[in-house]
Amino acid sequence: MRHVLLLNAYSANHAERLRGLLTTEWEVATALETEPTSRRDEELARADALVHSRFSDAMPQGLKLALIQTPTAGFDRIDPAALPKGCLVCNVHEHEVAIAEYVLAAMLQWVIGIADLDRRFRGGDWRGGVARLGHMHGELGGRTLGIIGHGRIGSEVARRAKAFGMRVLGVTRRPRAAPENVDRLATLDGLDALLPQCDVVLVACPLTPATRGMVDARRLALMKRGAFLINVARAAIIDEEALFVALKDGVIAGAALDVWYAYPSPEEPEVRPSRFPFHTLDTVIMTPHASAWTHELIERRWRFIAANLDRFARGEALLNVVIRDGRIVEGESAEG
Amino acid sequence: MRHVLLLNAYSANHAERLRGLLTTEWEVATALETEPTSRRDEELARADALVHSRFSDAMPQGLKLALIQTPTAGFDRIDPAALPKGCLVCNVHEHEVAIAEYVLAAMLQWVIGIADLDRRFRGGDWRGGVARLGHMHGELGGRTLGIIGHGRIGSEVARRAKAFGMRVLGVTRRPRAAPENVDRLATLDGLDALLPQCDVVLVACPLTPATRGMVDARRLALMKRGAFLINVARAAIIDEEALFVALKDGVIAGAALDVWYAYPSPEEPEVRPSRFPFHTLDTVIMTPHASAWTHELIERRWRFIAANLDRFARGEALLNVVIRDGRIVEGESAEG
């Protein structure tokens, strides 16, 4: 029987679920980093497959591991050079629906502000409605959305934005014809031309050396003063100081930020997410990297992981191979 | 030259806009209820068309008025029997896009709660995201939406809900085949069968003797315990006490309410919108009849009004005729 090891608490918690989903014969073992290394190493030595997001040369040598399946999209903490010979790495996505819903929720909160209407109305304030003329809100329909990075997330956002009657523009790494629901798609060098046209700009591209700091002070200044910026990708794609200054000074009108420049650690469990006080700006919607974090995401991911292990057991081609022969595989995984 | 009178502050405020939009020759006059009745009556006597939402037998006799164009969808304060002979009444919609956006915003606030994530995260709380496992939110995709009253609003909501991957069911007055974006459409007598299937129920039908109190305690109990109810139509379609009790006791999980059982008056400008304390329930999203109240709505409505006056001036058929020959016209105006 084949052995798969689920390493660490997050994966280990889903062992029962995985056993229920697998249709091929597997022994599903679990180990925690808090256990003695010797037990973890014993389990590793027996494993044909490992479900984990990290692998380095601190791991034991001579493993027979043929597959590392990450339980997340990110595989940047797996060192390709440290992998056992022939070991494939597959990742998992399934977050695009959740993130697209978050993006639409952020845009609607921006134009309508239903939570603010609710808060004021509970106090007896009828303003903002037909009974007391005055404050009106806005609509998404007819506005222009620009998507930076047209991968899985961009596609799901575009489909929903089109149903709202938005114009959808995009820039992406690889030149190709505009896909469904996109009015015009350019390559990344078209970014400067895209920005001044957009009422909403969505950052949904991977963080690479080319995209790090790509949205800087100059590009923020190219955006409309009334524009709204959304980042669901990686914080470092937008220059931290330039973003804070642009929001504080009204260079752009607002932002929804779900990804951050600092994350909590055991030492700083409530660390501020930036060295700048974004939490003092009322034009920002700020969330704790929560956009994908749904019950349904977990369900879909473990179904995918089980199906990939089934494929492995049956000798079929695996889905979402991201590292093969010690090299990151371009083109086998979609952007975003 | 033809004369059109804009009566009262809301319409009078848009006189300049209307003049800019008309392409036929009109004298656009305004009068306020606060002015002496004699001046209003002089203007009324000259008017070929009146833009106003009220007409009763308190108005002067013998007017030559041939058209009353309401600046709103509602025309229930126009007494058909009081109209000058031959005078048509047309209403205006154009609110369906704004209301559909509100409905999606409410559903997304319900499943994601982006405003709550924001509030907590500003205080340093990373829960709800990937950095601090624990609380997860939900998705709209795959859930079932039931729409009561499949008119203009229902259609616009269905289109957006489908793009989110929702299953869409509906009940409506007139039997017909399921339109685009609706998986199954039944007549109103199918309501009891619809309710237990839905994760979200949207009330979007007109208030009529048949729909008043239609969603009562018995029907609320037919809904799923986890269901979310949205009312953007008229409050009285849902029994006031039954709704409060169902929310308080968890018979249903939550509601977004934009229409109310009491509205402000000069005597009570901050009147509570119900005799029950909905504002004490945190499972309710409550807004002050604000769903349609957008800048774009006003723009579209006055464009429609100008176009209808142009049609009148050119002797063409008018759009949205709701009263003809002193009778409310069925079938010429869409539901919702």
Quick synopsis:
The structure is a homodimer of 336-residue chains. Chain A is α/β, with parallel strands linked by helices and 336 residues long.
Written overview of the protein:
With 336 residues, the first copy, chain A, is of the alpha/beta class. Chain A folds into two domains: 2-94 and 295-328, NAD(P)-binding Rossmann-like Domain (Rossmann fold), CATH 3.40.50; 96-286, Rossmann fold, CATH 3.40.50. Chain A contains ten helices and 14 strands. Chain A has helices spanning 9-12, 15-21, 37-46, 96-111, 114-122, 152-163, 191-194, 217-222, 240-248, 295-313; strands spanning 2-7, 26-31, 49-51, 67-69, 88-90, 144-148, 167-172, 184-187, 200-203, 228-231, 254-257, 284-286, 321-324, 327-328. In chain A, the strands form two sheets. Chain A has a seven-stranded mixed β-sheet with strand order 2-1-3-4-5-13-14, with helices on both faces. In chain A, strands 8-7-6-9-10-11-12 form a seven-stranded parallel β-sheet, covered by helices on one side. The longest helix of chain A has 19 residues, at 295-313. At the A-B interface, helix 4, helix 5, helix 6 and helix 10 of A face helix 4, helix 5, helix 6 and helix 10 of B.
